[in-house]
## 1
Amino acid sequence: MLLALALMFVGLCHGSTWSTPSEVLAAIVGRGEETFVIMQWRLPRVAAALVFGRGAGTGRRGAPGPDPQPRSAART
């Protein structure tokens, strides 16, 4: 969880121009010159990456599949 938050913060800093961590923090609280770019362009991109990455990581591993032998056939 902590790693995901750190990577999100780095993702907010990364763009066509690098924003410093202090600029990102200022934008998050609503101050600074980079507020529009960080909150409107970078934050949705980083949030989508987190959601889709989390979804890809929770595949159907170990999910129960169909029974190899139906219960009615097992009794006979």
## 2
Amino acid sequence: MSNFFSKDHNNIPKYALKMTKQKGIRMRVTARGELVVHANPFCTKEMIDKYVERHLDEVYFKAKVPTVRLFGRSFQVKKIKGTTSHVTTCEDELIIQAKDEASMEKVFQQFLRANAKDVLCDISEMIFYRFQEYSITMPKVLIRKMTSSWGICHPETNSITLNAELIHYPVEFIEYVVCHEFIHLLQPNHSPVFYDILKKVMPDYKRRIDLIETNNEKQYLM
């Protein structure tokens, strides 16, 4: 367990700290394998470090169990061999059934692609209604995996491309990304006008950005 998380010079496991209004301290391992601690501003670093040391074994155990995050919610992955192939969710479990391990992975990836397409397109259509007073038409929505962007706007073809990995993040954050790209159909850069439109169509956009937990993720919003 000591090798699972890297440690600082005080032998405390390294973690990303996220301030919250909730009482107490809690922590979790993100989909990227990073240890994230949520604490309110009244918690001192000493209190947080002690909490991390005390509860690390529990978090480590949970991290060893295969999990997948869908729309911000974590599911434990359960694999079952069977003659039919399908993926279902039941409470906090995601159940993958197929004839063998290779087939399970194929079925799971098909499940992710289909859900990413359906949900991201539905969200895009709903967000479009926030732009009724602006001179844009509903853009074509493309979806693919990307390594350094949550979304890309293509004004010349009236289309946007969304990162398929968004399927793992909260719906409210996905709505922000879609809104961000829609505004680029009107404003090509992050000008004051861009943010004026953003504040108007999505006043709580800053809260939505904070739904993602690490700076590595947030950098893709620039």
